[in-house]
Amino acid sequence: MTEPRSDDVASLRRQVLGHVQSLRDAGVEWLSVGAPLTISLPQQTTVAQPAIAAPAAAAPPSAAAPPAESLDARRQALGVLADEVKACTKCAELCSTRTQTVFADGPPGVELCFIGEAPGADEDAQGLPFVGAAGQLLNKIIVACGFKREEVYICNILKCRPPGNRTPLPNEAANCRGFLERQIELVQPKFICALGGCAATNLLQTNSSLGKLRGKFHYWMGIPVMVTYHPAYLLPHRSPEKKKDVWEDMQWLLKQMGRPIPLHT
């Protein structure tokens, strides 16, 4: 086997150090240690990306291989991460007004992860995401898609309730981003559904409107991301007529996932 050139090794070292620094800047303080890897550097390597037919979808960026951890190890690591979130005091206002942190609901290794904006009053009281009125509607969406709630992973951009349910501030989302990235790295969902403009723009780090983000796949950490309306926006006192649009989005997502589309009444 041909030994890797010194400039290849130096380039790889720079990429690894740059990635570690970006994780540190995002708030990640530790990484799990996997089994030693034997890496060869052939002269040309072609990385196959997931073939998903989507209108006007950009090619997915290259993503590092997921950590070689068992489901049980990842479940334990998520528990450790949840404890770190409980102890977080980065956002003075949020940690002084919260009842408790709201980490997530669901197991690692699922096909689909829903990401919302932030906990509300009901979530702050119970310590689980999407348990209020919007959560009840999300449950109906999940069932309509042929899933059970325990078969998906649900979390938010923020792990603490903003006072008065206000929109998360940019610095608050930045403080929580390291937790979110590590969370999804451990869950390893095959697809992500971003619920609402706040979740989509913070997750994807974009200024594009929800209207421009809908109808195509985006990619985050190599995972296909679909954007749709937040369930709270569909409630009777807001825009219930948008339920039809959400169902169309979910049908399209199910098709890309290779899952059957249940009859919807």
Question: What keyword list fits this structure?
Answer:
265 residues; alpha/beta; Uracil-DNA Glycosylase, subunit E; five-stranded mixed sheet; globular; disordered N terminus
Helix-and-strand structural type: alpha/beta
Summed up, the helix count is 9
* CATH 2nd-level architecture: 3-Layer(aba) Sandwich
| Fourth CATH level, the homologous superfamily | Uracil-DNA glycosylase-like domain
Topology, number of strands: 5
Count of folded domains: 1
Largest sheet: 5 strands, mixed
Radius of gyration: 19 Å
C-alpha termini separation: 61 Å
CATH level 1 class label:
Alpha Beta
Side-by-side strand order of the widest sheet: 2-1-3-5-4
Per the principal axes of the C-alpha atoms, what is the gross shape? globular
Helical residue percent? 25-40%
H/E topology pattern:
HHHEHHEHEHHEEH
Task: Say what the CATH topology is.
Answer: Uracil-DNA Glycosylase, subunit E
Mean pLDDT across all residues, rounded? 83
Low-pLDDT regions: 1-11, 28-59, 61-65
In what range is the share of β-strand residues? 5-15%
